[in-house]
UniProtKB/TrEMBL annotation:
Highest taxon, organism lineage: Bacteria
Keyword rRNA-binding: no
Record domain Ketopantoate reductase N-terminal: where: 5-158
Enzyme Commission number, as recorded: 1.1.1.169
Organism encoding this protein: Microlunatus kandeliicorticis
A GO-annotated cellular component: cytoplasm
Residue span of region Disordered: 324-344
Protein's recorded name: 2-dehydropantoate 2-reductase
Amino acid sequence: MTRYVIIGAGAIGSAVGGCLAAAGRSAVLVGRQAHVDAVRSQGLRVRTPESDRRVPVEAVTGPDELRLTTDDVLVLSTKTHQAVTALAEWADADVVDPDSGERVGAAWERLPVCTALNGVTSESMALRYFTRVFAVCVWMPAVYLEPGEVIVRATPRRGIFHVGAYHRSGDETARQADATLLDTLRDDWRAADCEVVVTDEVMAWKYRKLLSNLGNSVQALVGEGDPAPVLAAADREARAVLEGCGIAYTDDATEQAARDDSFSVAPVAGEPDRLGGSSWQSLARGTGTIETDYLNGEIARLAREHGLAAPVNERLAALARTAAKQGTGPGSLSAEELAARLGL
């Protein structure tokens, strides 16, 4: 049986791992000590619109606590700014034959890694460490605020994942191995109510998701008022940058059709109807870091690299970064205050 080693058991990682384990698939959560301790002692509490249950799932803090085998698939689900550290930690871990127990190589050469992160840079990061890298575009409204617990607000499916090979295999045998892996992942994740769409255009889906994720910083920063003008300005600017750089992204009609056929977001008992996304959660937990340098900041980087301008997105990245460093909670600005700081 394929085992999914989820590196980064935050909202998405815990949700995917919990859903897989609940469906009888093999999964391991790799997380911080407090989360791991809670999962080991009581199981992972998975709360959805329909249920609230504790799921037994293996949990570790790093590769020194786990024996990797050739049956494993690594799923990277950290924040992007944490990805390089995680990749370096796992790349050289020993891999053994599941039957003989003999070492057959290191993770970087023997195991595939799936990059289930926001943004569009983790794939190139991973390819510096691993031979086989599969990009994953994640649509999954999950929330992680307390150790040992994850909230998934999607129904009836828990998430939609566009997945495809980021690396290029050099021969037919390697390409067939990639296709077999994608078939297995699709079947296992579908059994866990996580729909997988295999596509050669996965990066176009991830760039379209990047446009949506530009609002993460706005959601994290704004507490009152209508942020629509700021969101529109950031989106308009980013589209101009992507088009100026010749970067393709999935068109709005195709994306909307896929979303219409995905899942509904529904309340979870005991929680507000609206809960924030990943950047909001970072400020709420006071982590001191935030991934918006790889969202709004990615647009700023592309603009600077190609002689274009992205003042709205570069300022949003700076404001979110400062809020995280200063320990400012979410919603510290009104929409009007944010617009003024952006010069809108």
